[in-house]
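COURSE: Structural Biology Practicum
ASSIGNMENT: Worksheet 4, Part C
STUDENT ID: 0417
INSTRUCTIONS: Below are two proteins. For each, the amino acid sequence is given first, followed by its structure token string. Answer the questions at the end about the second protein only.

PROTEIN I
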Amino acid sequence: MYRKPLISVCVANFNGMDVINDCLYSTINQDIDEQAIEIIVHDDASTDESAAYIKDNFPHIQLLESDHNVGFCVANNRMAAMARGEFILLLNNDAALYPDALTTLYHTAQNTLRPTILSLPQYEFETGELIDRGSLLDPFLNPTPNKNPDRDDVAMVMGACLWIPKALWDELGGFPEWFGSIGEDLYLCCRARLAGHLVRVCNQSGYKHKVGASFGGGKINKGRLSTAMKRRALSERNKTYVMLISYPWQLALLIFIPHLLLLHVEGLVLSLVKWNKNLWREIYAPLLGSLWQERDRLWSTRKEVQQKRAITLVNWLKPFHWLPWKITMAIKHGLPEVK
């Protein structure tokens, strides 16, 4: 007998042959009625035969195959558009759920009185070390890992494991496709909070994550922060976009100009210390041009978001951590390796 699924698990895949088994089997082997779940995979024009592998080995999974690479935002928007579940779980192909993950998320959602974005504690895949329980934000919108087990209200959760009611996803408009990849989770969580919705982390269960496997970098390697040039460029650009869109005007006036100045100083220092002009040319120099190019879209999106704002400035700032996270990381790990 046909029954509409309760949960739609959406997995964005690009060249995930080395990680996709762990991801999909962790979803299939949940301690929940299998008829309550549908699994959708969007393959973003992989070149490693992972799409064919999924088709051959997981025939019950709905596979969307893109004929060209469209990026993380478009991939997830496509899956969400065809999702039939009451709830959507966005899951990275390099992440694997604990067996009780979906049950925990569902029960938490049921016990929350209003639409809420949820996630789970995130653990390093190989070592099992806790990475975060969602994130707070510093003034420049750098995620600051929350490791406090007594704190479940956070500023954002990672798109690697993001649970959201389908109705709320539709209300917020999904991911901004012009972001491409990186920062879309920050945008969605900021937009949800401004509209008066909650962003929380369950205090039980969890997921394992091979951080950086799907996009390169973004992790600590032998005591040093390692990232990819493309990832860093998209991160700095899209965080700046989110700041312009989401910050209440009082905060925007206070933070935005210092943010731009400090970012360009950072770029010059990093380029000189590393003696690599490509760092400046590919990460920092294009920022002002991209802001100008997207000025109309940024302004119209800001107007839309701010008109629907249902939260005070004080409440907006509650999950912020005021010491800039980059300073903390530089003191602890030195300047990042950018490849």
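PROTEIN II
(use this one for the questions)
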Amino acid sequence: MPRFTSLKSPSAFRVLAAASWRAPNDPTVLGMIDVDYSAAAAFIARYDAVFGTHLTPTHLVGRAAGLLMRRHPEANAVIRFSGIKLRPGADVFFMVDSGEGHNLTGRKLDAVDALSLGDIERSLRASVNDIRAGNDATFGAGHARLRRTPLWLARPVAKLMSFLANRLGLDMRPMGPPPDAFGGAIVTSLARFGFETGFPALVPFAEAGFIVALMELRDMPWVVGDRVEPRPVLRLCCTTDHRIVDGYLGGRLLKELKALLSDPEQLLTEEECTIWAKDADAPAPASA
């Protein structure tokens, strides 16, 4: 019989993951789309110039997820004792790498369907800076406790905290998560890890209806009219909770997500649209 050795100093995420999942038996549906990123790249360059931001594909996908939950409230639901309940807001959880890919955490932004892309970018940038600088007390304390918790104890504790926060709606801070800490959708990027295709696992205690993962942006052959051209292509992999998002609804979400990213001006708020239009009408600067 092989002799196994203990993993030294496991991250808090590894402890929590090991405590949460047993043998795979949860209902999931997997889906994938490729998006021609040419329009999104041009859009981001112009948006950053107009609004002074530093957008990434993650911001666009997160904003799109919020709009999709507003369009399809049935995808923004949770399972409760009395049945399937709809969330009051389109909240999105953005996964954050707290340092060199070894420890993952994140931030939930409320009512993303009402936020501008600039609001999303600034909020996430501030959160990431606080976490990586060690200025986020909740993140630091929670992860330190998890790393000290033995696996046999972490599993029942995670289930208890999830029950108290998600089923009973109790605010468990600072011991555990607040109610509905992850919202209806999770957005994460696997690009920096070099993934071409990868489907994230549903997190049982998160209770999000779907997770969208961004892959590495690559140049690929793309059919344009009657020609094949090299285009930057963004692959998006989606995992859904089949209890909430079935195959039909999941297909609609992916199709509409692709449409939003292919024409990203649809992601602008009304206020942004006004500024965007004024910028388009401004005369071009004189050449030197």
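ANSWER KEY EXCERPT:
Q1: The domain at 28-135+180-265 is CATH 3.30.559.10 (Chloramphenicol Acetyltransferase).
Q2: The mean pLDDT is 83.
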